Automatic annotation (TrEMBL):
InterPro entries, per the entry: P-loop_NTPase, TerL_ATPase, TerL_nuclease, Terminase_largesu-like
Top-rank taxon: Bacteria
Pfam families: TerL_ATPase, TerL_nuclease
Transmembrane feature ranges: none
Native organism: Eubacterium limosum
Protein name: Phage Terminase
Length: 555
């Protein structure tokens, strides 16, 4: 291969199997890079690449082979009419690869005279301010405290820096950092958006807002650089599905570069020479190799770290069967369309009401053959202190009708009771019993009596105790692993379920939140209360093979 001295070495090392790599690396080279470089309407500007790489002298580290390869493709591969070819760059590498160092170098270059585009503003987006400022602070330190005092004058002449912005003086380009909680992202003249740790995002609202500022300056780019993570059904999961398609075959209309590194089997987790598949810098950083070998040796004594290790070091997320309620695949199996009529059915209900000024979940459970259909809703108090820290598209779920915001100091008990009354009227339901946690029954009692449900006189409310949940846990587990649950195209329920962890103490099982504040579980717990009452339901034969006819749905 002789395309460019900055691109060829990495291509050759992969195609000649000189380094361990995953199939996605070969697919990138065979189905994206080589076909693009062979095009008649594409050129490689090596001078532009060389100028950019000369800026390494200002950094306390040098780019390594995979970073030089990517830098060359990002800045040096152009169309014959002068545009960049790759406008969307997606980099998924394991923790320890040096991703923030690479981001910092890209930002420094984009502000520089060598890049040369006036007003080429760069926006860093991450889920937390600390993460968003990591690369920003790196660039700040490069300018504020040069590796060589002789560079101080040149840096001062070309960069202006404060704790809030860094500016390229000649190009008037600005580097800014953004988080999911910040406002004021609209109407920015953005040249490049860099998404750091995208695996944490369920909601792409802020991504969309920043993207809308692209296109006002030349060479607009989106760059994702992330590890994998534990959030399922989010932005990164959706992109990973797209990435598989992009990598599978050459598409002349594709302008997305996918650089994806991961191990290829869970059994490779403790094979240090295989981990370079996920961490392409592993052979370049001796201290990193030592650190990972130590993590491998200590894993039997730190089993709680295994799940994070697999997701972030290995880019190979695995569930923790000891604590997960259901695998992500089984949760997705429940989140599908179904063919089912609620009219004149019998059912049981459940409520979970952790705090009156937070979230409340309500559910109805129907038996259908060997499976279960779940009708549910979530109420959210706008006064909840946790709202600003929740990374989920609540407004979108409200528009879908799966969630209702309550503009009050708390969620009234009447609102909860009336939801059940409305479903009974709408579908002519036979609601046999409702399960309610003992802690909240006193608050809900009067409202439920008003619609004919009471724990002591009529006895059609059951106060759910921890021992009841413990007994229902095997039934819930069986329903998930046999994929006999259907709650419809409602990603809020998948989100809630994925936020739950099983806690096993002395052989007993209880359900708890994976995060006490920002990962809500209320509607799942309402479903659990329904499952406690499952024996109240009479089996009904499935009509039209409902469970078999559920339509696949990916959100």
């Amino acid at each position: 291969m002789r395309y460019s001295p900055y691109i060829d070495p990495y291509i050759n090392r992969i195609l000649k199997n000189e380094v361990e790599h995953c199939k996605e690396q070969e697919q990138m080279i065979q189905n994206i890079v080589i076909p693009v470089l062979e095009r008649d309407d594409v050129i490689i500007n090596n001078e532009r690449i060389e100028e950019g790489l000369s800026l390494q002298k200002y950094f306390p580290y040098k780019l390594i082979e995979w970073e030089i390869f990517l830098f060359a493709l990002i800045v040096g591969v152009l169309t014959t009419d002068g545009d960049i070819f790759f406008s969307d760059i997606r980099i998924i590498v394991g923790r320890g690869s040096g991703k923030n160092g690479f981001i910092s170098f890209l930002c420094f270059y984009f502000l520089s005279p060598y890049h040369g585009i006036t007003g080429y503003n760069v926006d860093l987006l991450a889920n937390s301010e600390d993460q968003a400022k990591t690369s920003f602070n790196d660039v700040y330190e490069i300018i504020d405290d040069p590796v060589d005092p002789e560079y101080r004058r040149a840096l001062k002449a070309n960069y202006y820096h404060t704790k809030e912005i860094i500016k390229g003086i000649e190009t008037k380009s600005v580097l800014r950092f953004n988080t999911s909680s910040k406002r004021g992202k609209d109407s920015k003249r953005t040249g490049c958006v860099i998404y750091d740790e995208k695996h944490e995002y369920l909601d792409d609202t802020n991504i969309g807002t920043l993207k809308s500022g692209l296109g006002k300056v030349p060479h607009a780019r989106e760059i994702t650089i992330t590890t994998d993570g534990h959030v399922r059904g989010g932005v990164l999961d959706r992109e990973k599905e797209q990435n598989k398609k992009i990598l599978s075959e050459y598409n002349p209309d594709n302008r997305t570069l996918v650089f994806w590194c991961r191990i290829e089997a869970e059994s490779e987790w403790n094979q240090i020479d295989k981990l370079v598949k996920a961490i392409p810098s592993l052979n370049d950083f001796k201290s990193l190799r030592t650190t990972i070998l130590k993590e491998i040796r200590e894993m039997p004594y730190t089993p709680d770290y295994y799940q994070a290790y697999m997701a972030k070091r290995c880019n190979y997320p695995v569930g923790n069967q000891e604590v997960e309620v259901a695998t992500w695949e089984d949760i997705q199996a429940a989140t599908k369309d179904y063919d089912f009529s609620f009219t004149s059915r019998e059912c049981v209900g459940g409520v979970d009401y952790s705090m009156t000024n937070d979230f409340t979940g309500v559910c109805l459970l129907f038996k259908q053959g060997e499976g279960y259909v779940v009708l549910h809703h979530t109420f959210v108090c706008r006064q909840s202190r946790d709202l600003r820290g929740i990374v989920a598209p609540l407004a979108e779920w409200e528009r879908k009708g799966d969630l209702t915001f309550i503009d009050d100091v708390e969620i009234p008990a009447e609102t909860v009771a009336n939801w059940f009354a409305e479903q009974i009227r709408r579908y002519n339901l036979r609601l046999k019993k409702i399960g309610i946690d003992k802690f909240r029954y006193g608050y809900l009692n009067k409202a439920f009596k008003a619609i004919g449900y009471d724990a002591f006189e009529i006895k059609n409310i059951r106060i759910i105790r921890p021992s009841d949940i413990m007994q229902a846990a095997p039934l819930i587990n069986s329903a998930f692993i046999n994929q006999k649950i259907a709650w419809g195209k409602t990603p809020i329920m998948a989100w809630m379920t994925n936020n739950v962890k099983k806690v096993i103490e002395g052989g007993n099982v209880r359900y708890d939140k994976q995060d006490p504040h920002y990962r809500k579980t209320d509607t799942f717990m309402a479903f659990v209360n329904c499952m406690v009452l499952e024996e109240e339901l009479e089996g009904q034969q499935a009509d039209l093979g409902m469970l078999q006819k559920m339509k696949a749905y990916t959100f």
